[in-house]
Amino acid sequence: MYKLSISTSGSYISACLHEEKLTGSLIFKSNQGSTNLLLNEINELLVKTNVEKKDLGAIYLDTGPGYYTGLRIGYSVAQGVGGSLGIPIVPVNGLDSLAFAAHTSHRKICAIIDIKRSEFAFCTYKPVPGGVVRESEPEILNIESLKEKFADDNEKKLLVGNWDLLDENALPNDSNTKLADPKIVSAETIHSVGERIFQNNKFPNFNEIAINYMREPDVSLSQTSLEKKVEFND
After folding, report:
1. How far is Cα 11 from Cα 28, in angstroms, rounded to an integer?
2. Alpha-carbon span 9 to 3, nearest angstrom
3. pLDDT at 222 (0 to 100)
4. Same domain as 106, residue 33
5. What is the pLDDT of residue 226?
6. pLDDT of 80-104, one tens digit each?
7. Is the peptide bond before 129 cis (omega within 30 degrees of 0)?
8. Residue 217 pLDDT
9. DSSP designation for 161
10. Could you report the per-residue pLDDT of 64-77, keeping only the tens digit for each?
């Protein structure tokens, strides 16, 4: 059984296929992503890996936080593909996926994701054997609030995610902080968490999937602009 992972929450759109191990992946930068573009890239990935759509058993979806339009595109594609195949969608929080990808360190992990308007989603994690657990609830912070949070934190920590989008003056400059990878949420980081959720059967029903915007969007988009007929070809 193959699993398709999708991440469209930021400036990079990515998808990957796993069976027991990674079968194939794609990633590209897109300032103006579209449903058709993502579908075309997924179709190309299937062709290149000689995988038929009927062999997909689940979709692992990056449900945010992140960019509103990108999240809507990923959600629309996952719903269309999942619905046409009758397979489950496993929602994965992007902050969790960043932290899990860095959990081999003994340091506290601070995950950060750009959500535009000079604001960032932020959450801290404690590494445990085989994974991470949240130390705090995800919150929205502006650059000044992030500077204050870093200044008040003397623990040894890893900063992962979109820290490279911060001004140098906002980044902590001390020996306790290491700037680390991954810098972006990708389909491969989404898969790592999604696979655990799937195997433990702890995912919601198809119609209960929710996008984690964390705030109101800049503009309201028409549903019809994103919910078009999905043509998912072999």
Report:
1. 9
2. 19
3. 45
4. no
5. 42
6. 999 999 999 999 999 999 999 998 8
7. no
8. 57
9. E
10. 999 999 999 999 99
Q: And the tokens for 76?
A: 């629309």
Structural domains counted in the chain? 2
Element (H, E) at 34: none
Q: Which two tokens stand for residue 146?
A: 């992030």
49 backbone dihedrals φ, ψ, rounded to 5°: -100, 0
The neighbouring-strand residues paired with 60 are 5, 90
State how far the Cα of 88 lies from the Cα of 57, in Å rounded to an integer.
7
Helix (H/G/I), strand (E/B), else coil: 189: helix
- Residue 57 — φ and ψ, nearest 5°? -110, -15
String of DSSP letters for 38-94? HHHHHHHHHHHHT--GGGEEEEEEE--SS-HHHHHHHHHHHHHHHHHHT--EEEE-H
Residue with tokens 């003397």: 154
Cβ pair 34, 73 in contact under 8 A: yes
Region of residue 129 (phi > 0: left; psi between -120 and 50: alpha; otherwise: beta): beta
Say if residue 164 is in the same domain as residue 220. Answer: no
Q: Assess whether 117 and 90 both reside in one domain.
A: no
Q: State which residues of the chain have pLDDT below 70.
A: 31-33, 217-234
